Every structure is written in C-alpha cells, then in structure tokens.
# Entry
Amino acid sequence: MYRMYDLIEKKKRKGVLDEEELRFIVNGFTDGSVPDYQMSAFLMAVYFNGLNEKETFTLTMLMRDSGDVMDLSAISGVKVDKHSTGGVGDKVTLVLAPMIASLGIPMTKMSGRGLGHTGGTIDKLEAFPGFQTSISEEEFIQNVNRYKIAVAGQTKNLAPADKKIYALRDATACVDEISLIASSIMSKKLASGADGICLDVKVGSGAFMKTIKDAQKLAETMVDIGKRANKQTVALLTNMDEPLGNCVGNILEVMEAVESLQGRGPKDLMEVVFALGTQMLMMAGAAQDAKEAEDKLKNTISDGSAYEKFCCFIEAQGGHRSDVEHIDSLQKVSFVQKVKSTNEGYLSHINAERIGHASVVLGGGRAKKEDDIDLSVGVRLLKKVADPVKIGEKIAVIYGNDEEKVRLAEKEILESCEFSDSCPEKIPMVLEIIK
Ligand code: URA
# Structure
C-alpha cells in the first residue's frame, strides 16, 4: 500500500514513478480517496520536474482506461481520426472530414467545445438546427458504416480521470506542462478507438504552443504515446500566427467551411486541409504517396463529392440539407460593422489570440465551460498578413448583437494588427511533419 505523501515527495525529488505508483495516484484521485490538495501538490511537482516517456505513456493509459474505450471493430476499414490542439478560425475538421469520407475512408471523430479564444467543432455543428452531437455509440457506428462519417461530442465516460485531473490543473496553474498536455489529449484519442490518429499541433500567437520548440516537444511526445499504444500516429506542426482562413465565430466558420467545400476555400485553410488529409489517406492505405493523396483530395472538391458528403452527414445527424444550402439565413445579428484601418503599410502580423478574444468579447466564446455562447457573432477578416493596406481601408467586418461589445471588438481588432513598410515573408502553413 502506498501513501500519497511519499509519492508527492518522490516526484518532488525528481524520482521516477512506476506503473503501480501511478495507478494508485490516478485511480485514487478518480475515486476520491486521494484528496484535491494532495493531487494539486503532485501535479505541481510534475509541472516542475516532468514525467519521462514511460511515465507519460503509463499515465495516458491509466486515464484512457478510467472510462469507456470505444470498440470500433464493427466498422470495416482503417478508421482515422484527427485532433487539433486548438486555434483561431480552425474549421479544418468541417472541411476535411467529408473529404476523407467521400473517398470511402471511415472518419470517426470525437470533438469538443470551444474554450477561451479557441473554437470547437461541436459548437460549430450546433449552428445547424436539429443537429445531434450526443449520439449513442450504436448510432455512431451505424452512421460510419452507412455514410463513412460521424462526429460526436465526448461521452461523459470518456477518460473521466483526465476530466477530473484537467479541472484541477486548470484551477492550479498546471495546464501548460507538455507531458500532462500530451497524456491528456492522447488518453481521449486512444479511448475514441480509431486506428490512425493525425494530430494538428498549432504553433503561434493563437495557439497553446507559442514556439516551434514547444510544439515539437508536444508533437513528439504525443506521437511516442500513439506508437507505444500501437496506433499509427502522425503530427503536423501548422502555423497559427494569424487566424486560419478569414472567418472567426461559429456560424461564420461553418459558412467558410461550406464555401471551401464548394471550391472557394481560403488558400491558407486549404493548405492545412490538404496536408492533414494527405497523411490520413496514406495512413488508411488509400494513397501510395503525397502527390496521389493530394490529387484525390482535390478531386473531392472539384467533383462536388465532399460537399455532397457534408450535406448527407448533416442530415444523418438530424440537421437539414436546406440549411447547408441557405447557410447565410442561420446568422442572426443586429449589428454588422466594418472596421477601417487607422494605419497603413503591409500587414505584418495579426495577433490570432486577440482576434479570438474579439469573438469572445462579442459573445461567441466561453470564459468557463458552462457559459452559453452566441453562435451568430464573430469577425470576418478582409485582409491577411502581407496584404497592403491604406488608411481608412476596410480590414474586417464585425457581426454582433450588442453595440458596446461591437465597439470593444473593433478596438481589439485594430490593436491586433501590426504594419511594416516592406512586404513581410509569409510563414509556411505546414512547419514540420513528425512521425
Ligand atoms: N487539451 C486537452 O485535452 N488537454 C490538455 O491538457 C490541454 C489541451
């Protein structure tokens, strides 16, 4: 029998914990026998001293096994999943999932809600009246077998240990430690049951990871966990230094996703979509090389099959095709305000976090998990980094339902833009692929 005090002491002194010791901690905290104050001290010791690769993997598996592990064996084919570490304007799943499914590859996606300045796929899909995100495991499997695609919110019993530990990390300033982030994300991905996991690790001002070095470490740690768990895992480091695409805000992002499926997607967004899709197709054995994968993906847009698959997916989960076709009518706002530049030159930087914050200020994001959000509000950028801008030229449009909040969002947008005299070099969208 262990004593929590001794295990905290061991980690405080940089000791390495074995599987049984970690089991005592994770299971004890989940069942309530280890109190919050001791777990907080333990997490802070991990924050300062870290976990080695084996400890990180063991923690992941203990959190995965604390609840249900989805059994997707009733779905034939290589099931693929993607995960983004969170960004601003990130509607990649909405575009990519139907593209993958339209090629006959089963796309099984567990998604979350937005928190803080980053959005979540589940909130965006709820923009469609009637759309059900809390579908049963049976329905999820049935839909993937029938349509090759299903997207569901996380069930209550998916990695409950992670849920409880994350809440405590959040309250005790212990979120931003790489082995804790990696084990938290991967415990849920492994519990979701897919065969292949493609990770989109965002880097830059709008991301959790602000530097390439931290993003690389997080990506390597998650890929290592995936491999140890015998899952095909690949991570892409992608640029989140300015918002992805032009739209930020739930319905606005769904609109942009639909436009992208119709062949009118912004260049930066589509670059990330194709890069992730290429890895997923190769994982599923549907393409021998990157060129073949990208050609196949592009065809799903040009022949309309990805758009058709999106409509079919929305209907399969309770939404209506007519809402996809008339998506503009879903947005209900009282104020549409143009933002005019007070500066001139080339746009050298748009702080993605601040644009995300502008959307939160308008009511489109949550400060706390239980907050309600306004799906209609948000920001459409009319200019992106490296575009020339004149004083008085329109750089963005704000959609809001409260005049004072619109004013605050305008200030936030103007302050998020930096200018230079010469045209800045664009940062590549895909910075690195880690396998
Ligand atoms: N997302 C998660 O699921 N867990 C973390 O620890 C951080 C981000």
